[in-house]
Amino acid sequence: MIRVLTLDLVDDAAAIAEYERWHKPGNVPAPVLAAIRAAGVEEMQIFRLRNRLVMTMTVTPGFDPAGKAQADAADPEVTAWEARMGEFQRALPDAPDGSRWTPMTPIFALSDHP
Length: 114
Known about the structure:
By secondary structure, the chain is α+β, with helices and mostly antiparallel strands. 34% of the residues lie in helices and 25% in strands.
C-alpha cells in the first residue's frame, strides 16, 4: 500500500537547502531510520516543488499510523529529529491536530482502469 502526505517548508531558500542537507544519505540518524522501518515502512521518498513537499510511503499491510506516532513520541532520538525538522516544516491549514504531515486522498489509479 502507498500512502502520500504533504506539507510546506518555510519559504526561505537557505532553510530549504538546510532541510535537504539533513535528508542526504548519512545525515538522518540511524535510530530514526530504524524506527521508520520498524513501523512497517518499506520505502519512503520525499519530493519538493518550491516549498511544498510530498512524501510517499510504501507500507506493509499492518502499518498503523497511530501506533507509529505513539512509538515515535516515546523515542528520544525520533522526538529530537522531529523537533529539528519542525524548525523547517509548516503544516497545511487542514493538517490533523498534532501533525505537520497531511495525508492526501487517492483519486486515481491506472491499475483500476481496463
